Amino acid sequence: MIPWRIDYVDGKPMVHIEVRSMSPWQVERYLVKLGGEVKAKDSYIVGKGWEARLQRGEPVALGALRIGVVHMDLFGDEATLHALMDKLSLWLMRGGG
């Protein structure tokens, strides 16, 4: 499982993850499997009690190999974030990530 923690922004729980070796549409697909609805392609997904914002980051170089990066911010209550991350943290594991 990938490491993650709940932080607070303006008193609201959120999880920030840097996902590697995936594109925004792949992360979006996992969020849709968890009940999300795409509001803005590859960038904003809303589910029951949560929302996710995706942003493509600068690729990471490993020698000649370049690995894609997606920044994901998940917002919701703590219980909802824990339930989402229990599944997502397994799905988002990738080599090089």
Q: How are the elements arranged and paired?
A:
Blueprint: E1 7-9, E2 12-20, H1 24-33, E3 37-40, E4 44-47, E5 50-56, E6 60-62, E7 65-67, E8 69-76, H2 78-91
Describe the structure.
With 97 residues, the chain is of the alpha+beta class. It has a domain at 25-91: Molybdopterin cofactor biosynthesis MoaD-related, C-terminal domain (Ribosomal Protein S8, Chain: A, domain 1). It is 25% helix and 42% strand. A six-stranded antiparallel sheet has the order 1-2-8-5-4-3. Strand 6 and strand 7 form a beta hairpin. The longest helix is centred in the C-terminal third of the chain and has 14 residues, at 78-91. The protein is globular and about 40 Å long. The N and C termini lie close together (11 Å). The mean pLDDT is 92.
